[in-house]
Amino acid sequence: MFSAPAAAVTRLQDRGLFMLSTEPSATTSYTLSYQYLSPDPVGSVDMLFCMDPIPYMPCDPPAGLDVSHAVLSNQTGDTGFSILSQSTNHIILTRTPTSPTAAGNSSYTFDNVMNPSDTSTAFAIRLKTLGTTDGTGPQIDVGSVRGQATNAIMLETQVPPLLVFCVAEQVADDCSSTSDSYYKDMGTLGPQSTLTAQSQMAVGTNASGGFTITANGPPMAAGTHVVDSPLTPTASEQGTNQFGINLVANTAPAIGNDPEGASTNAVVSPGYGVPNEYKFSSGDVVAYAPNVSLIKKFTVSYIVNSSKDLGPGVYSTTITYIGSGRF
Amino acid sequence: MKRFKSIAAAAMAVLIAAVYALPAVPAYAATSASLSIAPKKNYVIEPGKSVKDKLLITNLDSKNPLELSLRVADFTFTDDTGTPKLFLAQDAPQTTWSLKPFLTIPESVTIPAGGSKTLEMNVAIPAKQGAGSYYSAIVYSAGAPNGGNVGLGASGVTLVFTSVPGQVHEDLKLKKFGIYHIATPNENADYSFISAKEPVNVAYTLLNNGNVAEAPVGSITLKDMFGHTYVIDNVNPNGSLALIGQTRTFTACIKLKSQDVSFSGTKTQAATCVSPGMWPGRYSAALDLFYGQNGNETQEILSNTSFWYLPGWFMLLCLVVLAVFAYVVWRAWRFVRKKLGYQPKRSSHNK
Fold this sequence. Notes:
The complex is a heterodimer of chains A (327) and B (351).
Chain A: E1 13-19, E2 27-35, E3 42-50, E4 71-76, E5 82-87, E6 90-98, E7 106-114, E8 123-130, E9 139-147, E10 153-154, E11 163-168, E12 183-184, E13 195-205, E14 211-216, E15 220-222, E16 225-227, E17 234-235, E18 242-246, E19 250-251, E20 254-255, E21 267-268, E22 277-278, E23 284-289, E24 293-305, E25 317-325
Antiparallel strand pairs in A: 1-2, 2-7, 3-6, 3-8, 4-7, 5-6, 8-9, 11-13, 13-24, 14-23, 14-25, 15-16, 17-22, 18-24, 19-20, 21-23
Chain B: H1 2-21, E1 34-37, E2 40-44, E3 50-59, E4 66-77, E5 84-87, E6 103-104, E7 108-111, E8 116-124, E9 132-142, E10 150-164, E11 172-181, E12 190-192, E13 194-195, E14 201-208, E15 217-223, E16 229-232, E17 247-253, E18 256-263, E19 266-273, E20 281-291, E21 299-309, H2 312-339
Parallel strand pairs in B: 2-10, 13-21
Antiparallel strand pairs in B: 1-3, 3-8, 4-5, 4-7, 4-9, 6-8, 9-10, 11-12, 11-14, 14-17, 15-16, 15-20, 18-19, 20-21
């Protein structure tokens, strides 16, 4: 399925970036550190600030970043560099070509760097060492370091992320109203009948990570008598002890509805989306969206079957649906 | 005494009359189970510092008040996706990455029908707290009334992540990389080497052995047999995380379609995977990932893989072409034999 990583023979080693302040748009110091790998004389170091760390990809400068006034204030390890040229997102260091001699990492500190303004994505510094003193010609070693501006409170998007969630026997498509009914009497259990019920929930989010809904609760029970639930999708069978749910339209018995709503991102989980087959395991994810999802309404169907040996009593359970974001 | 008795009797009569005259109080007052919350909060807090933030909760039900109890619960991962597994038991042991001791929230709130409330929350990191990722969940529970055979409860969850900067242990190991078919109601998600369906997703699975939640960045390049290139320049567009100890599968669309949609009165961008228009054949894929916290080493993961896209129509076409080719060869062979004067053999009983 995958092969071993390619040997990093031309990569600068132990690369790192320390931003003294990560506040967006702050003027601060960056300390870049890495270890030279090749013994070839290095006359210049090219530092290109881009959104994408990959050297052969187009370079989009990080919004708000400015290194045009950066000052090389300190250097350790392999030293002797000065700034040859600089622009908003590009610095070239130069020195008399010399073979690297430092045993460990070399570091270069730049003051007066303005941080990117965007806290939602990381940026990269693409590093390239060259034999010439002016940043031209064939490269010797390459590598990228990663950085990110962060607020103490990080905003995910310009619009605050929201998770909309409602549960009841019946709910409106946009959660603006419900039937105010949160329990259901299903009737009298018997080996010759299947008891059914249904509830609804609507959910949506503008968070890029999407949402997930889990169903949580104990099996249906009356004292010590328990109606077990199938852990894999199973057809309803009268005369056996079964408590199960699914989230699609069924014909055996005729109950439920397929999910309603425009969102294509929100889907029923595997195992709870097979018509006429039911299961229940507390904590299972019953529906989710991996991305932004407009509000979608799910109808949950419940079936209960009982064997003739099931002990008498009032059988009940409470299923709590938990709507959460994803990480 | 007689006068007192008559006054008491009159008072009792008024009380009884009043009880009967008052409307009956329902055993269960209608409440809402319809809410809007923030799904996730992220903070970067240095040791010894704290952050005050607000939790906005909206009751979407226009008729009934929303009564919520709030608590902090730890969580981990459920599987290789971004689904949290909440430790809801009151006696659940605290995780090593728990934010519980540092997170303060109110215990309950009542929000009027159709209204909103803003709650204060505070995250305070002790001065000697080590660097790393700390996370817990705020659980908002609407009361579940008793009665019937099946009762319904509803809870919303806000995931709260806090990063404490400093020297951390970062270690991501690549476990899998290749084309990926996402889960359907009937089928679990999985990698595949040969695909009859046009691939729309590429995925990579990473094991996080470090002490910090990681969100890698980087790119994936696909190349077909004819040199056409498909580049995924953002392999983690949602900033998804591999939690501590998690084996996490990150998926990326080969071709992404973004569109503005209206959500609760605001515009937001929804992205979906669309057909990348791939031709059948063998593809190579190259992964280049980067990760690393501020002040720590930037680490890189490189990998290459390959896969085949062989749709049914293409296989059928190949069979037809093969059959036509075999037929042409057979006809040519017969033609050559005839020209050379070979006679077809006859069976022995015809001799």
